[in-house]
Amino acid sequence: xxxxxxxxxxxDFANHLIAEIKENKLKIPTQPExxxxxxxxxxNPNITIDQLAQVISHDPALTARFIQIAxxxxxxxxxxxxxxxxxxxRLGIRFVCNIATGLAMEQIFQATDSTVDKLLxxxxxxxTHVAAYAHVIAKLTNVPxxxxxxxxxxxxxxxxxxxxxxxxxxELLEDPEQLLTLLDEHHPKISEFILKSxxxxxxxxxxxxxxxxxxxxxEKPELAHVVQASILKTHETNxxxxxxxxxxxxxxxLLCLESDDFLTNETFQSSLDDTLKFxxxxx
Length: 283
What we know:
This protein is mostly helical. Helix content is about 60%, strand content about 0%. It is globular and about 55 Å long. This is HDOD domain protein. Pfam families: HDOD.
């Protein structure tokens, strides 16, 4: 049993939880080994297609998912492909590294308690929708698509230890509203802690906290603005389970656009629909 119990929302909850993680009083799922190796691949500018294929091939389920993704309508290849090197050649090394990381992470979003398990799946479902929007919106900016989609997938990773904590505290499981408030208020700081401990790039690990501090319109959109705009659009489709934090910043301001009509035009919607289908492979 953990030492820190809450009855009302504790403003210092995130720090208490991080302390328990550091003291090994609260176990969090370890980053899958294949995900660790994929992050190393992503950071290696000299990685080759064959080297990356060798890393992925150690996980047969991941290999099968990638072959399925590479042959999906979004990729629109001229012919069916069935080998990992050809898959990577079609999708691109950086894209494969980041999406493979997301696919590998999916396995840690599950729990034995049914209430917690459902919330974890809600977190992952919302994250994949944010990643899909970020993938499409990033193309309108100078933000790399691969970074935007990975940031979308990882920005709520701090929900994991909060929900792990909840499994041992019946008062939280019996009060879903309080649990959601805890998730909403404290996952950013905990997300940052976990992503740093997992050695994600600074632009990814610092992003969860940055998202709460976007108060002025940028001169040009950066990664945080793209992800926040993606969160806003995900809320509009009722696919995000947490409160919305906008600081009066809509997608138009975040992306430095005169109008956000592009978000409803046929070309954008068609691209988004295809991308959402693609990211459904991550669910």
